[in-house]
Specification:
The complex is a heterodimer of chains A (192) and B (297). With 192 residues, chain A is α/β, with parallel strands linked by helices. Chain A has a single domain, classed as 3-Layer(aba) Sandwich (Rossmann fold), CATH 3.40.50.880. Helix content of chain A is 26%, strand content 32%. In chain A, a hairpin with a 2-residue loop joins β11 and β12. Chain A starts with a strand and ends with a helix. With 297 residues, chain B is an alpha/beta fold. In chain B, β6, α6 and β7 form a beta-alpha-beta unit. In chain B, α2 packs parallel to α4, α2 crosses α12 and α7 packs across α9. The longest helix of chain B is centred in the middle third of the chain and has 19 residues. The chains are: A alpha/beta (192), B alpha/beta (297). Chains A and B meet through α1, α3 and β7 of A and β1, α1 and α12 of B.
């Protein structure tokens, strides 16, 4: 069976993720509806505006199907806004914003500041021989990580790449720096 | 911040990266914090602060300038999504002010009255990224060579008439398609005809796309308009007068946000277009006294 990786395509940098998955030879589907969500064996929640995505998940009646797939163990990678959506608590978000709560993180939205504070830097990632070039764009800051969360990389003492079970999250954008190692690790860990 | 920790800010990757994050979304023109909140509540991916919406600039005339800094700060305080603001073409001092206010994107915009008849802003000199308008591929590539990190097709702002936006999109994307299939010797002639740098033309030939994202602006007034331009190839839409000149701005804003996501699904476009009240009253292009799209060079 050929596995299919879905990329949530409600808003944001979904095309850049699809490009990397294509490069890896993985079958992909852009997910905008519950029917498309049903077809995927793993899912990426991209960067973009987490408030916009949260509203579109709700209006498209995707929240419950997504929660149920996640509680069934769907492997998922969340980057930036995707990390925010998957976390257990959101600081400085909108009060009506959904936190799916599948990774025990407390995150501060736009924790680094405005676009002027966006940056790129090399980070050391557990399990990688060479540094990973990470791009942070109006990125969230992880202020607390629960005991079950494995921290794979840090910047200035803040976790920026984390894993808990089948959930992997990055505060930065692995889809933007032309390095496919994080996507490969995600696809491998999803069991393909 | 934190140069000493190896963090590089204001790089091309970081500046173009924010444009990637805005894809599949709607950027809404707002003139005050209340409108900004309505836009965010509707699901806007960003807001654009300006002094007056284009339809009012057209109606009232006079010189249109950068927004009052106090208004921009108020809008920044009111919402958590990115805040863009407009500077006049060539008015690098206005752009410097916008950068000092910490806006997330600067629009060097033909909707405002141009400040320089020959020169656009040197956008490489800024850490804040810029979006610029274009009516054709040559214009887009000149703006990119000056440092623009996002291109929007200009359309004709403040008209609620989509025809110019469609013309500009088809022109830009049509030429990209032709360059992609041209042979290498023809690229020199393309660069000459477009009055654009050869390396950018060669990059388009190799990648089949602009080096930066391309969104659409100028005349989008309904969910179907958003669907049309995104099916033609725009990656997001800017909506100006189309929202706050409609009879029910909050509803229209929400509907256009859904249309930008589900632009390929006509049944969803039909659903969100139902019961919206009236769209802004449009203008016939042939009857305009001023064509804003002609500003910029």
């Amino acid at each position: 069976m050929t596995p299919t990786v879905g990329v949530l395509a409600l808003q944001g940098a979904f095309a850049a993720h699809v490009r990397i998955l294509d490069w890896l030879g993985v079958a992909t589907v852009e997910v905008r509806t519950a029917a498309q969500l049903e077809r995927v064996d793993a899912l990426i929640l991209p960067g973009g505006e987490s408030t916009t995505m949260s509203m579109l998940l709700e209006r498209g009646e995707l929240i419950e199907p997504l929660r149920s797939k996640l509680s069934g163990g769907l492997p998922v990678l969340g980057t930036c806004a995707g990390l925010i959506l998957l976390s257990s608590k959101i600081l400085d978000g909108r009060s009506d914003q959904h936190a799916l709560g599948v990774i025990d993180l407390e995150v501060r939205r736009n924790g680094y500041g405005t676009q002027l504070d966006s940056f790129e830097t090399d980070i050391d990632v557990a399990g990688f021989d060479d540094p990973f070039h990470a791009v942070f764009i109006r990125a969230p800051v992880v202020e607390r990580a629960g005991e079950q969360v494995e921290i794979l990389a840090k910047v200035d003492d803040n976790p920026v790449l984390c894993r808990q079970g089948q959930v992997m999250v990055a505060a930065f954008h692995p889809e933007l720096s032309g390095d496919d190692r994080i996507h490969r690790r995600f696809v491998d860990s999803a069991g393909y | 911040m934190a140069q000493d920790t190896g963090h590089q800010t204001g790089t091309t990757l970081v500046k173009r990266g924010l444009a990637e994050m805005l894809k599949g979304g709607v950027i809404m023109d707002v003139v005050d914090p209340d409108q900004a909140r309505i836009a965010e509540d509707a699901g806007a991916a960003a807001v654009m602060a300006l002094e007056r919406v284009p339809a009012d600039i057209r109606r009232d005339g006079g010189v249109a300038r950068m927004s009052d800094p106090e208004m921009i700060s108020g809008i920044q305080a009111a919402v958590s999504i990115p805040v863009m603001a407009k500077a006049r073409i060539g008015h690098f001092a206005e752009a410097q002010v916008l950068q000092s206010l910490g806006v997330d994107y600067i629009d060097e915009s033909e909707v405002l009255t141009p400040a320089d008849e020959a020169h656009h802003i040197d956008k490489w000199a800024f850490e804040t990224p810029f979006v610029c308008g274009a009516t054709n591929l040559g214009e887009a590539l000149r703006r990119i060579s000056e440092g623009a990190c996002l291109i929007r097709s200009k359309g004709e702002a403040g008209t609620g008439n989509i025809v110019e936006a469609v013309r500009h999109l088809r022109s830009i994307l049509g030429d990209i398609a032709k360059i992609t299939t041209a042979d290498s010797a023809e690229l020199f002639d393309w660069a000459k005809r477009l009055q654009a740098p050869l390396p950018l033309v060669q990059e388009i030939h190799d990648t089949g796309a602009l080096p930066v994202p391309m969104f659409c602006a100028g005349g989008i007034a309904t969910p179907s308009d958003a669907s049309l331009v995104m099916q033609l190839g725009a990656q997001s839409v800017f909506v100006g007068s189309g929202i706050f000149k409609s009879s029910e701005p909050a509803k229209m804003a929400t509907a256009i946000v859904e249309a930008a996501t589900h632009f390929q699904d006509a049944s969803i476009i039909a659903k969100v277009s139902t019961g919206l009240g009236s769209a802004m009253k449009g203008l016939e292009i042939a009857e305009l006294e001023t064509k804003l799209a002609d500003r910029g060079w």
